[in-house]
Write a structure and sequence with these properties.
Elements (H helix, E strand, L loop, with lengths): L2 H18 L7 H8 L7 H12 L2 H5 L14 E2 L14 H17 L9 H22 L8 H8 L12 H20 L5 H23 L6 E3 L12 E3 L1 H9 L6 E5 L8 E5 L11 E5 L2 H13 L4 E5 L5 E2 L4 E2 L6 H5 L7 H6 L7 E10 L5 E7 L11 E5 H7 E7 L5 H4 L7 E3 L11
Length: 439
């Protein structure tokens, strides 16, 4: 259909709607009332229209009165070394997790630099998530295809949208294979358990093949030696991935607790997100819901004791990437358009306007002369040229509005809060608004 035909047809429909439809439509009278909000004769409206038509909204809304208000100096900072770059892999959660452990390894072995192999972890993350998806299909095989859980699995419970650097083609192939396999397994719902397991392993074999061709097959053994800051070279030693992790990292997940601020739900309760895990036999995410004010105190104690934390937030909101600053004062859209934006954190969550979109390591905090927190420091994984030398400075007010979760060592948390872990967790569905941004 030609553009002219489309225009005429659309115009005809709009015109007819003023005569045919009843209450709820935009009538001619209603349209006239709406149009009054925009006056071409208003000098401000004319100026701002001319400006917006030729420039970036973000550039025009930049609040120049806030420039220079915050610096990038911090009173308390975790000893961190170097900035990682996740490229376009979408694996911020993986880089963040490793970045919180990295300082300990660097300190333990007196290294100048150190970085974990995220490619190795990514290979098995994709394989395990594929298994989680396929087993989820088997576990729900008796439900209708339009059942909400089945529908969510087919739409959302897939490996990440982005892959290791430039292998986006691999992701499309894996998705195609998994969705095809889901239908095959559902059509086998009357089959014996062992036959379903056999078919699933056959499918996972295909997934493994695709991953190995794209990423290389993960090693089962490797050698590692290193040169410390003094120039001393360690003795060459053979490891398996498991033995390396146990000796070098010495990490115990039971020492940590996930804290979240979700004002749309009751505070001081324990929650669990169904299917929010990386491996089928693993544990779903379990978190304590706390007001931000209390989470900050635990985070501050952690940083002062030189412990980095996993931190996730809605990073795109009010981010000045050039300055490396997250501040509510960065952009003034209200003044630019003369329109109020009044949603609070709860409103943004329940309307899907805001959610956890990015993970970083929380590594610094600054206070004024009275000990009041003023700003925080985040170690990002977008490379050293991003933000302020790879870091983002976050104001304390921004923390209140757009922080969603922090993983803290239990030793920094008071007994009152730790007792919440003894509650029976309230299970939430995987399509919950609070987790809609997590893929």
């Amino acid at each position: 259909m030609k553009k002219k035909t489309i225009f005429v047809s659309t115009f005809f429909l709009i015109l007819m709607s003023n005569f045919v439809f009843g209450q709820g439509n935009i009538s001619k009278e209603n349209l006239e009332k709406i149009k009054k909000s925009y006056s071409k004769n208003d000098p401000y409206i004319k100026a701002v229209t001319n400006a917006v038509c030729k420039n970036s909204i973000k550039k025009l809304s930049k609040n120049h009165f806030s420039i220079g208000k915050y610096d990038h100096n911090f009173k308390y900072k975790v000893n961190v070394k170097g900035i990682t770059d996740q490229e376009s892999s979408g694996r911020c959660w993986m880089f963040t997790s490793m970045n919180t452990l990295r300082p300990k390894v660097i300190e333990k072995y007196n290294l100048s630099e150190f970085e974990f192999s995220t490619n190795y972890l990514y290979f098995y993350d994709q394989l395990e998530k594929s298994n989680l998806f396929l087993q989820g299909i088997i576990d729900n095989k008796d439900k209708a295809l339009d059942d909400k859980m089945v529908n969510w699995l087919l739409k959302s419970a897939m490996p990440e949208t982005y892959t290791s650097e430039n292998t986006s083609g691999m992701q499309k192939i894996i998705k195609k294979k998994l969705r095809e396999s889901a239908l095959i397994l559902r059509r086998m719902k009357s089959a014996k358990k062992e036959d379903l397991e056999k078919k699933k392993l056959e499918i996972l074999g295909d997934i493994y093949k695709i991953l190995a061709i794209n990423l290389g097959e993960p090693p089962t053994e490797f050698s590692w030696n290193y040169k410390d800051k003094t120039g001393k070279i360690s003795e060459l030693k053979n490891y398996t991935p498991e033995s390396f992790f146990k000796e070098v990292v010495n990490f115990n997940e039971n020492d940590y607790v996930l804290l979240m601020d979700d004002p749309s739900r009751e505070y001081y309760k324990l929650y669990e997100i169904e299917y929010d895990r990386n491996v089928y036999e693993g544990q779903n995410w379990i978190y304590i819901n706390l007001p931000t004010k209390e989470i900050k105190e635990f985070a501050k104690k952690s940083i002062i004791d030189n412990e980095a934390m996993y931190f996730s937030c809605d990073v795109g909101k009010q981010l000045d990437s050039k300055e490396g600053l997250l501040s509510l004062d960065n952009y003034d859209y209200e003044s630019l358009f003369g329109v109020k934006f009044e949603m609070n954190k709860k409103d943004r969550i329940i309307t899907f306007q805001s959610g956890s979109s990015h993970g970083m390591a929380l590594v610094g905090v600054d206070t004024d002369k009275n000990g009041k927190i003023t700003k925080w420091l985040l170690e990002n994984s977008w490379g050293s040229k991003s933000g302020h030398n790879g870091y983002l400075t976050m104001t304390d007010e921004w923390f209140d509005q757009y922080m969603f979760r922090v993983v803290v060592l239990k030793k920094f948390i008071n007994e009152k809060t730790l007792k919440i872990l003894k509650q029976k967790a309230i299970k939430l569905p995987p399509w919950d608004p609070m987790f809609s941004f997590d893929k």
